[in-house]
Design goal:
Elements (H helix, E strand, L loop, with lengths): L2 E4 L5 E5 L2 H7 L8 H9 L1 E4 L4 E3 L6 E3 L4 E3 L3 E4 L1 H9 L5 H9 L9 H11 L15 E5 L1
């Protein structure tokens, strides 16, 4: 599942960014928003899985498809970086307002904050069966 999660809300807001959303909202041109591209690609790795998938637009390989990145407040699927950079995919307004409010400033995340984010917040997204826990998240399908 490709997603963007706001870990500052309660319940968490999770944007499920579907293949259909990407296929219906991409442009055949790189993003002109270099601040967004930089922000998405230069933040912390949150969870790394060494894997490869194919771009749903060009069929080219995308590395780290199931890896996650974070700024300490938001968590996103690493392959979003590919679609933003190469195809100017529109991101949810809620996320864009956040980035504009911090002026796309990347701040270092203390290790303790990353551990708290992972163990106390992110692991509560799914229930014991691995299904999305509707009590802890609000899922928005894009």
């Amino acid at each position: 599942m490709r997603f963007l999660l706001d870990a500052t809300t309660s319940p968490y807001i999770v944007y499920h960014i579907t293949d259909d959303y990407i296929l219906n909202n991409y442009k055949r041109e790189p993003s002109k928003n270099s601040s967004l591209v930089n922000y998405m690609t230069k933040n912390e790795a949150f969870s790394i899985l060494l894997d490869t998938t194919k771009c749903i637009i060009t069929n080219e390989p995308i590395e780290h498809y199931e890896s996650l990145s974070t700024d300490g407040y938001w968590i996103w699927s690493a392959d979003l970086e590919h679609y933003i950079k190469k195809f100017n995919i529109k991101m949810p307004d809620h996320f864009m307002y956040y980035l504009e409010s911090i002026q796309y400033l990347i701040k270092p995340i203390p290790r303790k904050n990353l551990e708290t984010l992972y163990f106390k917040k992110f692991t509560t997204v799914c229930d014991e069966d691995g299904k999305i826990d509707s009590k802890t998240i609000k899922l928005i399908e894009l």
